[in-house]
């Protein structure tokens, strides 16, 4: 039994067999085979090709079902590579003339093609080099009989162990069988963590080189509350965790009962609890957990799952679908937030020393008006007889708000001229994630209808902590008094101008932060679907008056640790059902 | 053996889908089919070969065929290029 400590990426506990997903290159060496074994190697090659083709057909079908034709096309190219007479001919030739093992021959020939393609000064060709890598690593692994890398082929419950998981990795997973994630890199706001929370499964991340330490089929327990991973636990440990898993599922069952009750404090203040989505389909999970609407539709997934800029029609279809599913409940659509850690293959962003401080989100949109206008047209058209709100990301001050609004007005005029219908009173807001916007919220409030605080970036910018860097992740503290004061400034400014403030960062789904945020006057909490019931439960068990007292006290504390300890104490009391208004001000410290 | 010189007129050149369509069509014929751009010649039935020529819009290429159905093969491929690969 070995215990590893990492970052708690998503809450929950899971126990099960490890599935080590190798998404980096396997080392393949030349092994000379005896001349009479050459035919065996050629047979292995053929079998590997056939198996790879079957897998690609399945992948293509899955992508066709979940996305559309254009995304499935890439697999057509993979298929043709496996049927390429020159390529396969050269591999066979290498096996025969060098008496090489089949996997090595594939790698040798593939490498020569990759080198050739990478030489050509053309992004498209370099991407094709990546396709050759992808398809030939599939082929070599099939030849070597390494099965545990094809996420689509999972057919029994497993915990996925990987260096890192990309959006396309998780798209390929058969999610019915995935018990949890554990990775070498990543923090609470990495794609893996966000994905795990939206699936409602635990994740323990940032474990260094765990994907090399764990073998396929090892028995694991991952504790997404504590950020612990136990490799091959002993009997006692296993029994202990079985109890914990039982308790956890019982708690979830109980919480599920309050999920559909209104989010209203004991003294009658109601707040909105909504969910963050990446695609219209995520609305089902939100609804199943009692969400009131959508506080953040991350539209970049539409762009990232595509080989080219999505057209107005493609976007309209998705936005409209979401609006229809929500039946007039609010849908806040954030305009394209690309750059930073999110790249598009077809939109080259020059190498930047500091991508998070670079050309991203609204900064790209205000320059690439073609992209921006297409999206605004699609959103506006979808807003007709719906309840859609537009939100601009990465706003640093009032000038960008005015510019973005000017473009929006131009697009509205275009649509009017074309007799296209849209919501004439569509509300416009900004994501508050840059400290300067939080500080000048009073000025910006005059220009917008609402704010939504994006705490993931606001925290990283305000505390100067790279949230992807596991080395400094302990400095990433959303409960830092400095951040709380920024949040208060935003909420107060919006209320003075009769506007509302929501929050769509991870903090909105944090049980520890909930009462403080409620007390600061936050109007809307938007989070991953799985977090909704627990947050609703907290809101329903305090009074707004208590929450205000707690928030005021928290603002006076001097360290994030003190705030956290204070918040945890209060949370414990609430969970025990023993919170009393009189004792709160003195509690915890 | 017969050969024909053509100019690629579609925007993406012999990239992506057009390349797949081209190779897919070539593969239907029994004849040996070659594609040449500048000094480089590749098997027209090989997707990797065709892609490696980096054929862009306005590239001049030569298609050669040798075999029982060489006439039809050249005809089909030239027609395909003329129709801009049904783009």
The CATH C-level class name of chain B = Alpha Beta
Which shape of chain B, going by the Cα principal axes?
globular
| CATH superfamily annotation of chain B | HPr-like
Q: What CATH architecture of the largest domain in chain A do you see? A: Alpha-Beta Barrel
For the sheet with most strands of chain B, the description reads: 4 strands, antiparallel
Biggest beta sheet attributes of chain A: 8 strands, mixed
Q: Please state the overall shape of chain A, judged from the principal axes of the Cα atoms.
A: globular
Short description:
By secondary structure, chain A is of the alpha/beta class. Helices cover 50% and strands 13% of the residues of chain A. In chain A, helix 3 crosses helix 4, helix 9 (235-259) crosses helix 21 and helix 20 crosses helix 21 (532-540).
Which helices and strands occur, and which strands form pairs?
The complex is a heterodimer of chains A (589) and B (87).
Chain A: E1 2-5, E2 7-10, E3 13-21, H1 38-66, H2 69-82, H3 85-98, H4 102-119, H5 123-144, E4 158-162, H6 167-172, E5 178-183, H7 191-199, E6 203-205, H8 210-213, E7 219-223, E8 228-231, H9 235-259, E9 272-277, H10 282-288, E10 294-298, H11 300-304, H12 312-326, E11 331-334, H13 362-365, H14 369-382, E12 388-392, H15 398-417, E13 427-432, H16 435-439, H17 441-445, E14 450-453, H18 455-462, H19 481-496, E15 500-503, H20 511-520, E16 524-527, H21 532-540, H22 544-556, H23 560-576, H24 581-584
Parallel strand pairs in A: 3-4, 4-5, 5-6, 9-10, 9-16, 10-11, 11-12, 12-13, 13-14, 14-15, 15-16
Antiparallel strand pairs in A: 1-8, 2-6, 3-7, 7-8
Helix pairs in contact in A: 1-2, 1-5, 2-5, 3-4, 4-5, 9-21, 12-14, 14-15, 20-21, 20-22, 20-23
Chain B: E1 2-7, H1 16-26, E2 32-37, E3 40-43, H2 47-52, E4 60-66, H3 70-82
Antiparallel strand pairs in B: 1-4, 2-3, 2-4
């Amino acid at each position: 039994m070995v215990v590893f400590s990492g970052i708690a990426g998503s809450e929950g506990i899971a126990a099960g067999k490890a599935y080590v997903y190798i998404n980096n290159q396997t080392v393949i060496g030349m092994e000379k085979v005896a001349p009479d074994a050459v035919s065996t190697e050629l047979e292995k090659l053929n079998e590997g090709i056939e198996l790879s083709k079957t897998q690609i057909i399945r992948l293509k079908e899955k992508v066709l079902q979940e996305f559309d034709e254009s995304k499935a096309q890439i697999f057509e190219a993979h298929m043709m590579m496996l049927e390429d007479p020159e390529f396969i001919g050269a591999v066979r030739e290498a096996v025969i003339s060098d008496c090489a093992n089949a996997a090595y021959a594939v790698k040798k020939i593939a490498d020569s093609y990759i080198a050739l393609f990478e030489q050509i000064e053309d992004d498209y060709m370099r991407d094709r080099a990546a396709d050759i890598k992808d398809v030939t690593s599939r082929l070599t692994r099939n030849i070597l009989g390494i099965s545990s890398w094809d996420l689509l082929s999972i057919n029994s419950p497993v915990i996925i162990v990987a260096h890192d998981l990309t959006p396309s990795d998780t798209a390929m997973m058969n999610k019915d069988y995935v018990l949890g994630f554990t990775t070498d890199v990543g923090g609470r706001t990495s794609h893996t963590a966000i994905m795990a929370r939206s699936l409602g499964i635990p994740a323990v991340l940032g474990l260094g080189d765990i994907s090399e330490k764990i073998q396929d089929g090892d028995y694991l327990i991952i504790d997404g509350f504590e950020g612990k991973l136990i490799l091959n636990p002993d009997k006692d440990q296993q029994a202990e965790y079985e109890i914990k898993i039982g308790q956890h599922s019982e708690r979830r069952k109980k919480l599920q009962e309050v999920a559909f009750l209104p989010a209203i404090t004991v003294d009658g203040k109601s707040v909105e609890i909504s969910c963050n989505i990446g695609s219209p389909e995520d609305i089902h999970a939100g609804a199943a957990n009692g969400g009131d609407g959508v506080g953040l539709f991350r539209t970049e997934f539409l762009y990232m799952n595509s080989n080219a800029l999505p057209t107005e029609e493609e976007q309209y279809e998705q936005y409209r679908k979401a609006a229809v599913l929500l039946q007039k409940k609010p849908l806040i659509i954030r305009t394209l937030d690309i750059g930073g850690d999110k790249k598009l293959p077809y939109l080259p962003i020059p190498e930047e020393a500091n991508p998070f401080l670079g050309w991203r989100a609204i900064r790209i949109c205000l320059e690439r008006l073609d992209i921006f206008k297409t999206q605004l047209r699609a959103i506006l058209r979808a807003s007709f007889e719906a309840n859609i709100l537009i939100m601009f990301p990465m706003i640093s001050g009032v000038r960008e708000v005015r510019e973005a609004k000017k473009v929006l007005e131009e697009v509205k005029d275009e649509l009017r001229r074309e007799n296209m219908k849209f919501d004439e009173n569509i509300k416009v807001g900004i994501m508050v994630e840059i400290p300067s916007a939080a500080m000048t919220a009073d000025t910006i409030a005059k220009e917008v209808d609402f704010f939504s605080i994006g705490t993931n970036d606001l925290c990283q910018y305000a505390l100067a902590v790279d949230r992807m860097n596991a080395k400094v992740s302990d400095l990433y503290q959303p409960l830092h008094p400095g951040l709380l004061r920024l949040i208060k400034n935003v909420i107060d400014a919006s209320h003075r101008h009769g506007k509302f403030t929501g929050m769509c960062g991870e903090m909105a789904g944090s049980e520890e932060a909930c009462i403080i945020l409620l007390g600061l006057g936050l109007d809307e909490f938007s989070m991953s679907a799985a977090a909704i019931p627990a947050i609703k439960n907290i809101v329903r068990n305090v009074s707004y008056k208590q929450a205000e007292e707690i928030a005021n006290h928290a603002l006076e504390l001097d360290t994030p640790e003190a705030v956290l300890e204070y918040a945890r104490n209060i949370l414990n009391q609430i969970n025990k059902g023993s919170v009393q208004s009189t004792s709160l001000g003195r509690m915890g410290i | 053996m017969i050969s024909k010189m053509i100019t690629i007129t579609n925007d993406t050149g012999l990239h992506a889908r057009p390349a797949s369509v081209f190779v897919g069509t070539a593969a239907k014929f029994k004849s040996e089919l070659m594609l040449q751009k500048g000094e480089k010649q590749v098997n027209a039935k090989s997707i990797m070969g065709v892609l490696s020529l980096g054929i862009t819009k306005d590239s001049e290429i030569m298609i050669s065929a040798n075999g029982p159905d060489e006439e039809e093969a050249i005809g089909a491929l030239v027609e395909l290029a003329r129709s801009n690969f049904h783009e």
